[in-house]
Design a protein that fits this description.
Elements lengths: L18 E2 L9 E3 L5 E6 L9 E7 L3 E6 L6 E6 L8 E13 L9 E4 L6 E2 L6 E7 L8 E11 L6
Antiparallel strand pairs: 1-7, 2-3, 3-7, 4-5, 4-6, 6-7, 6-11, 7-11, 8-9, 8-10, 10-11
Length: 160
C-alpha cells in the first residue's frame, strides 16, 4: 500500500492500509500519498473489505457514518484501502487511482456503477452510475482492478 507524504491540511504519517481500533486522527482528515492520491479517514462498517466502495455521510457536524454501497445508495463514495470493520477506523480513497473490487467483468474506460452486491462495482448499464469513477482496465468479476476516481458521487437515478 501507499505511504503518506504529509501533503494536505495535516501532516499524516503511516500506511494507507493501517486499521485502527480507536481514532488516531480526526475522522474526516484528508491526506495525500506521493502519487497524489487523496484519502479520507473514516469509521469502518460491517463486512468492509479492501477494495469495497462505501457511502460516507456526515450528520450533525462531525458525526460520520459509512456503509457499503447498495443499488439505492446516494451520496459521496470512497474506496476502502483495507478491511475496516465496525468499531474500527481507516483510510478510504476519494481521489486518484485505487484498487476496487468488480462484481462482474468490466471493460476498460467504462464508467463505474453500483451493484446489488454490497460494496462491489461494475459497468452494467442497468445499475446507477457513479459520477467521477471510471475503470482503467478490463477486470474479471470478483477481482481487484484499477479505478480512477475524482471525488465520486451517486445522485438519484442518474444513469439508471
Amino acid at each position: 500500500m501507499a505511504n503518506f507524504v504529509g501533503q494536505g491540511p495535516l501532516a499524516v504519517e503511516g500506511d494507507t492500509a493501517e486499521v485502527d481500533a480507536s481514532p488516531r486522527t480526526r475522522v474526516g482528515t484528508r491526506a495525500r500519498d506521493r502519487d497524489g492520491n487523496e484519502y479520507i479517514y473514516l469509521p469502518g462498517a460491517a463486512s468492509v473489505a479492501a477494495g469495497d466502495a462505501v457511502i460516507w455521510v456526515v450528520a450533525f457536524g462531525t458525526d460520520v457514518t459509512t456503509g457499503r454501497t447498495i443499488t439505492t445508495s446516494t451520496g459521496p463514495i470512497a474506496i476502502a484501502m483495507a478491511a475496516v470493520g465496525s468499531g474500527q477506523y481507516g483510510w478510504f480513497c476519494v481521489y486518484g487511482v485505487c484498487s476496487a473490487r468488480a462484481a462482474a467483468d468490466v471493460n476498460a474506460n467504462a464508467l463505474a456503477r453500483v451493484t446489488a452486491t454490497d460494496g462491489r462495482l461494475d459497468d452494467s448499464g442497468t445499475n446507477r452510475m457513479i459520477i467521477g469513477a471510471k475503470w482503467m482496465e478490463d477486470i474479471s468479476g470478483g477481482a481487484l482492478g484499477p479505478l480512477h476516481i475524482s471525488y465520486p458521487y451517486i445522485t438519484g437515478n442518474l444513469g439508471a
